[in-house]
Amino acid sequence: MLEAIIFDLNGVFLESEYLSDRIEKDFGVDSQDVITALKDIMPKVRKPNAQNSFELWEPYLKKWGVQLDEQGFFDYWFSGEHLVQDLLNYAIELREQGIKTFILSNNFIERTTYYRKHFAEIFQEIDEAYFSWETGFVKPDEQAYQKILQDHNLNPERCAYFDDSDKNVKIANSLKIKAFRYEGLKQTKQTIQELQE
């Protein structure tokens, strides 16, 4: 019997077109240049007490000729994301069956603040969300997973985990959590049903 299911957030509960593709389409910036910026900036802002992330984005935006201020840039970025309502409904069903549900996400303060305001229903319908900028543990750090297990006194062998990153799935499996690459709601339901049998 499963005690808890841990989900990644982006690419799972929230879906969007890649930011790099959107900026290329809307502003004519090569998507590879945006990916390079993301690889530079994201590791710096996912931890506690990080620098304001727009300060890191601003030199890139100026170089690209993208005239967006801080509010405009983050609104542009985050408003391109949408909730997967069917997955949230399923998470509600799981909780009604007595299974705890958690979110484990590598994320930064500005994005999390937006999510808590604009996707409040997610946080109302799960047991708890763990964000790297709050915990200090960035996946695939084992401590990111262990914190959830310890906080809620969970047996890892009675927990399932779904993420769209193979690296994160591999680490969770090494901790004896039953971890799987997220392949959509249908596959997730089937996997959880099999685990329950």
List keywords for this structure.
single chain, 197 residues, alpha/beta, Rossmann fold, two-stranded antiparallel ribbon, 11 helices, 55% helix, 15% strand, elongated
Element layout with pairings:
Blueprint: E1 4-7, E2 14-16, H1 19-27, H2 31-45, H3 53-64, H4 70-78, E3 81-83, H5 85-96, E4 100-105, H6 109-118, H7 120-125, E5 128-131, H8 132-135, H9 142-151, E6 159-163, H10 166-174, E7 178-181, H11 185-196
Parallel strand pairs: 1-4, 1-6, 4-5, 6-7
Antiparallel strand pairs: 2-3
Helix pairs in contact: 1-2, 2-3
What does this structure look like?
The protein is an alpha/beta fold. It has two domains: 4-15 and 82-196, Rossmann fold (3-Layer(aba) Sandwich), CATH 3.40.50.1000; 18-78, no CATH class. The chain is 55% helix and 15% strand. The strands form two sheets. Strands 5-4-1-6-7 form a five-stranded parallel β-sheet. Helix 2 (31-45) runs antiparallel to helix 3 (53-64). The longest helix is centred in the first third of the chain and has 15 residues, at 31-45.
Q: Could you say which overall geometry the principal axes of the C-alpha atoms support?
A: elongated
Distance between the termini: 8 Å
Widest β-sheet, arrangement of strands: 5-4-1-6-7
Averaging pLDDT over every residue, what do you get?
97
Poorly predicted runs: none
The CATH H-level superfamily of the largest domain is HAD superfamily/HAD-like
DSSP summary, beta strand count: 7
Number of domains: 2
CATH class of the largest domain: Alpha Beta
Radius of gyration: 18 Å
Q: What's the SSE pattern?
A: EEHHHHEHEHHEHHEHEH
